[in-house]
Structures are given as C-alpha cells and as structure tokens.
C-alpha cells in the first residue's frame, strides 16, 4: 500500500459550485479560516465545511471535519499520525484492524450542541454544553461505545456531590439521555441505561393575595411595574428583562412575546405568543410610558439595557418591607434574602390565578408559552379548605343525589 497522506480541505461554495480546496496555514501554523489558494492567489470563500481526505487502498474517503478551524486542525493531526502508524505497521507485516464506525464522545457532543445552534434553540444549547461537559469530566472515556451504566450512575453521584437536588439530577439525566441517543447510544436497553432518578413533584409555589398586596404596596413605581409584568402577564425573568414598548399593542390590549435576535434573546422553545393585557395593567403601562417616553425597554436600566438585577431588587424589597419568611436558609444567611421571594413565583401565581378563575387549560398553556400541556397542568392545584368552604356550603347534601344513586344495591343470596 502506498504511503499516502491525509489531506485537509475546505469544501466550499465557489462561483463554479461546491469545490474542495486545499486549506491555507498561517505563519503561526493555524488555519486561515475560509481561505484557499486559487491560481496562486489567496481568496476567501465564507460558506463551507472542513473535510479530511484519506485513502483506503486507492480509494479516497472524505470525512466531515466540522466548521471550526482549530477542531479541524486537531482532527487532521490525529488522523495523520494514525495513518503514519498504520503504514508503519503494514510495512512491518502486522495486520491492521480498524473500526471506522466508532464515535468519539467529544465529537458527538460538538455535533449535538451545533444542532441546537442550527435550530436556534439557545437555551437548549446552553444546557447541552453544560451537561456534555459535566458528563465528560466524570466519564473520561473517548468513545460512545465505551460508556457503561456505571458511568451514568457516577454522573448522578458527581452531581449530587456538587449539591444538585433530585429534580436537577433527573433533568440532567434526561438531557444526557437525549445527547447519547443522538450519538447512537442505545438508551432503550435496560442493561445499558438506568432509569431516571425519582424525585417528588411538589406543587409550584405561588404568592398569597395578602403577599401580593403587601409587596405591591411596598414597591416604587418601577418595581411595581416589574411585579405586574410577572403577575399579570406571566412573563419569564428573561422575557421581562427584554420586554419592549413596541411589544405592546395598545389598541387591542395585547402583549406580544417575541424573539429579539438583535439582543440575542430567543423565547424558550421558540414559542412566540400573544397575551391579553388587563385594563389596570394597561393603564399602569400608559403611565410608565409617559414617565419614560424615550426608552426602548419597559423595565430596562438607566442606560436602557436589560436589567439583570431584577431578582436581587425584588429580594431586597421584600426584606425592607418586612415580608421575609424568617425561617428559610436565605433569611438566616448573611444577606438575609428570603428564598420565598423570586420572580418566577409571580409567573406561577399568574397561571394558577387564571386557572382558578375558570380560564381553560389550553388557553393558559398558550399564554404561558408552554410547549407541553402537562407543564401547564402542574399549575392546577386543589383549592384551600377556606376557598372551597363556600362551595361546600352551597351543596344540598340531601337532595344533591338522585334516589337511584343512593339506594344500596340488593344482592340475592340463595
Ligand atoms: Zn425566608
């Protein structure tokens, strides 16, 4: 077998169509990304991918090497040294057995993250990065086919050691499962894949009407608007921070949650949605607009950028207003910031209030922007005994059921 080298190409879109062109290395031995030599002149074709070419016998085989120059270079070096080793072995008369179907964990992780990026699922991309990194730190194996059940258990243990709760471990388990499944790992096999760790599902926490009244009374106009955006529109923390005046349809009293690519903000699960604005919130918004006629953001910073400190401000407000629970770890900690006060709880209160006031599940799902109705259903909670008392009182216990239903069944025994 001839000793043929592995070559790295930039497979790119040229005016003549898609072509493989030899890459250009800079003086620092790094790839000059997108650059190729054409008729002795260096030109750039921005659209393309890297491809490795190696030979099996006399047949050229092209392998995708991604779009990142440093990764393509690393892959090229690895394949080149492998090829040298193989040629040496062949020359020495050894039989070389290779398995080209093996999938590297790191490479599969990059593809998985890239896939999220292509779908513009930015939140999923962030989680994919985190979980694959966390897993690789624990697993320390090279190929997907080397992973065994014990690696998954070790991953669970490592997360718990770092202080992750049962719910977080279960969520990361599912994210890891989705990644490994995409890489061809058999997650359906009980011998290879353990079940998700169990955790007890607790009802979403909501604020009581008394708490809502108290925090609104303590808030300045800015924080009152922040609280109202959570409580009356059910906005997520990030949606609130990126809310713009132009998202309000003043004529139809509708708030539109939408993607803001210019601010690198994408709505979770890509679910853009319309939410009705109650008349009291609409008038609060009108007043705020009069106070801030020039800004783009509804609750931005002084420089009109997304305010990243809304949560902290809410906690300080609750503390100053004497609304801390005084019992939780947060209250007892140095900062004295109560764990019971957080923005997302306003969103939970919004969903629960809508459902309790007879808005149907499908509609609440749409307003909340849930991809799955099961998520919305978690906000259905039994009424408190106090709330249900008037309904229970109104029941006619004696005349409420027909005679037929109340008569005991007669059984004849011979
Ligand atoms: Zn507390």
Secondary structure elements and their pairing?
Elements: E1 7-14, E2 17-25, E3 31-38, E4 41-44, E5 48-56, E6 59-64, H1 69-91, H2 105-118, H3 122-139, H4 149-161, H5 166-182, H6 209-218, H7 221-233, H8 237-241, E7 248-249, E8 254-257, E9 273-276, H9 279-291, H10 310-320, H11 329-332, H12 343-356, H13 361-368, H14 373-377, H15 385-394, H16 403-406
Helix pairs in contact: 2-3, 3-4, 3-5, 7-9, 7-12
Description:
With 414 residues, this protein is α+β, with helices and mostly antiparallel strands. It has a 6-stranded antiparallel β-sheet, covered by helices on one side. It has helices at residues 69-91, 105-118, 122-139, 149-161, 166-182, 209-218, 221-233, 237-241, 279-291, 310-320, 329-332, 343-356, 361-368, 373-377, 385-394, 403-406, and strands spanning 7-14, 17-25, 31-38, 41-44, 48-56, 59-64, 248-249, 254-257, 273-276. α2 packs antiparallel against α3, α3 crosses α5 (166-182) and α7 (221-233) packs across α12. The protein folds into 3 domains: 7-91, no CATH class; 106-182; 209-377, Intergrase catalytic core (hpI Integrase, Chain A), CATH 1.10.443. Helix content is 44%, strand content 13%. The mean pLDDT is 86. The site of zinc ion (ZN) has 9 residues, from α11.
């Amino acid at each position: 077998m001839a000793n043929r080298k592995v070559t790295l190409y930039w497979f790119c879109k040229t005016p003549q169509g898609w072509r493989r062109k030899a890459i250009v290395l800079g003086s620092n031995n790094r790839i000059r990304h997108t650059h190729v030599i054409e008729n002795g002149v260096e030109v750039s074709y921005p659209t393309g991918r890297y491809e490795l070419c190696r030979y099996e016998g006399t047949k050229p085989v092209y392998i995708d090497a991604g779009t990142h120059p440093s990764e393509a270079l690393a892959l090229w070096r690895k394949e080149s040294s492998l090829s040298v080793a193989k040629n040496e072995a062949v020359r020495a008369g050894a039989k070389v057995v290779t398995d080209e179907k093996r999938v590297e964990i790191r490479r599969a992780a990059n593809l998985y993250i890239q896939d999220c990026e292509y779908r513009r699922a930015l939140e999923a991309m962030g989680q994919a990065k985190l979980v694959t990194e966390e897993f690789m730190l624990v697993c320390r194996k090279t190929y997907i086919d080397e992973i065994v059940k014990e690696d998954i258990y070790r991953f669970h243990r490592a997360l718990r050691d770092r202080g992750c709760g049962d719910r977080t471990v279960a969520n990361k388990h599912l994210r890891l499962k989705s990644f490994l499944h995409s890489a061809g790992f058999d997650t359906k096999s009980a011998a290879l894949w353990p079940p998700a760790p169990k955790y007890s599902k607790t009802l979403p926490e909501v604020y009581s009407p008394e708490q809502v009244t108290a925090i609104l009374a303590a808030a300045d106009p800015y924080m009152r608007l922040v609280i109202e955006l959570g409580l009356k529109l059910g906005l997520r923390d990030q949606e609130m921070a990126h809310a713009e005046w132009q998202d309000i349809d003043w004529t139809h009293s509708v708030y539109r949650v939408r993607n803001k690519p210019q601010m690198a903000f994408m709505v979770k699960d890509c679910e853009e949605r319309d939410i009705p604005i109650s008349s009291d919130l609409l008038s609060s918004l009108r007043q705020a607009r009069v106070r801030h006629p020039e800004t783009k953001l509804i609750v931005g910073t002084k420089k009109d950028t997304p305010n990243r400190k809304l949560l902290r401000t809410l906690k300080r407000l609750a503390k100053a207003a004497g609304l801390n629970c005084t019992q939780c770890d947060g209250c007892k900690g140095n900062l004295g910031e109560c764990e019971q006060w957080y923005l997302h709880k306003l969103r939970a209160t919004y969903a629960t209030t809508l459902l309790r006031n007879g808005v149907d599940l499908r509609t609440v799902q749409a307003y909340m922007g849930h991809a799955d109705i099961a998520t919305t259903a978690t906000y259905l909670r039994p009424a408190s005994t106090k709330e249900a008392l008037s309904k229970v009182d109104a029941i006619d216990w004696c005349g409420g059921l027909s005679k037929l239903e109340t008569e005991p069944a007669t059984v004849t025994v011979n």
